[in-house]
Amino acid sequence: MRNKQVKLLYFSFGGTELKEISLGWKRIVGLAAVCVSVILLLISFTIGFFSEFISDWQMTHQNRNNSRLQNMLTEMNKKVQLIESKMQTVEKQDDDLRIFVDLPTINSDVKKLGVGGQAAAAIDLAYGSDSMNEHAFKIKTVLDNLSQRAELAVESRQEIMRQYYDNLRKLKQTPSIRPIGGGRVTDKFGYRLDPFIDRFAHHDGVDFSAPRGTDVYAVADGKVAEAVTRYRPNHDYGKFVIIDHGFGRKTRYAHLDAVLVKEGQTVTRYTVIGKVGDTGRSTGPHLHYEVLVDNRPVDPFNYIMD
């Protein structure tokens, strides 16, 4: 086997000479090894070339994606800053409205936290120092905080509206006008000489002299607590009306010639509730008008604004 050789015959189609090459097994094995080595080198070079090509392509693609993500984060940051600016404007308006309706302003620390939230982290888009994931997380944190602050602002506006309408109702139910049109004040609130007993006694209201039959107005919104039409001559208030305005305030209209409302009836400011007369303990046609706070008489002129 060792002495056997392989002969290769080769010739040219244009000539007649036949040539041969004799190869021993050692040469054949050597040539085969060289061929395999060359093939392996070619394969290794090809793999290395394509690996580097693919790696460069992937890096380029990744860089492009990173660039797009960075641009998106930059735009998102601008929008977040715009929303933050608008949120601050809303919160400033909220403070003004709360002062207007006499509500305490919301503490700045509470605003930063929002409704059950945590303070937002500041956004720093220095991409060379932190990963984009970290910046995306910070932006999300700020957006979550803005959402919580917006929810707090909505709740505050609802509270402001409730307080506003409560204040408006309170104003409508606050005595604020003269109970008759015109009329001369003949007796004020306080001590005076009582014409029936010729002694000084406290006068719990204001007397307006006016012709019999003059319209008497409710001075604010409320409900008729009493509407008395039976009386003893020269005693007490005669025919009178008491209106409960809520919030501990009532008004009394006495010595009426006629009562035009009923107990339990709801009235509004300027509703005609009766007519001027001189019933009860009276020396002539006039309206005796009282304002009571927690059932204690106070000076009616403190509640006359027209």
Q: What would you note in describing this structure?
A:
The protein is α+β, with helices and mostly antiparallel strands. The protein is 40% helix and 26% strand. The chain has three helices and 14 strands. The chain has helices at 25-100, 108-113, 132-172; strands spanning 5-11, 18-24, 184-187, 190-194, 199-203, 206-209, 215-217, 222-228, 239-246, 249-259, 266-267, 272-276, 286-293, 296-298. The strands form three sheets. Strands 3, 6, 7, 8, 9, 10, 11, 12, 13 and 14 form a ten-stranded antiparallel β-sheet that branches. Strands 1-2 form a two-stranded antiparallel ribbon. Strand 13 and strand 14 form a beta hairpin. Helix 1 runs parallel beside helix 3 (132-172). The termini are far apart.
CATH class of the largest domain: Mainly Beta
The helix tally amounts to: 3
Percent helix range = 40-55%
Q: Which topology of the largest domain does CATH recognise?
A: Glucose Permease (Domain IIA)
Could you tell me the radius of gyration in angstroms? 51 Å
Number of E-type strands:
14
Percentage of residues in strands: 25-35%
Poorly predicted sequence stretches spanning 5 or more consecutive residues: 121-129
SSE blueprint:
Blueprint lengths: L4 E7 L6 E7 H76 L7 H6 L18 H41 L11 E4 L2 E5 L4 E5 L2 E4 L5 E3 L4 E7 L10 E8 L2 E11 L6 E2 L4 E5 L9 E8 L2 E3 L8
Antiparallel strand pairs: 1-2, 3-6, 4-5, 6-13, 7-12, 8-9, 8-11, 9-10, 10-12, 10-13, 13-14
Keywords, please?
two-stranded antiparallel sheet; Glucose Permease (Domain IIA); 3 domains; rod-shaped; 3 helices; 14 strands; alpha+beta
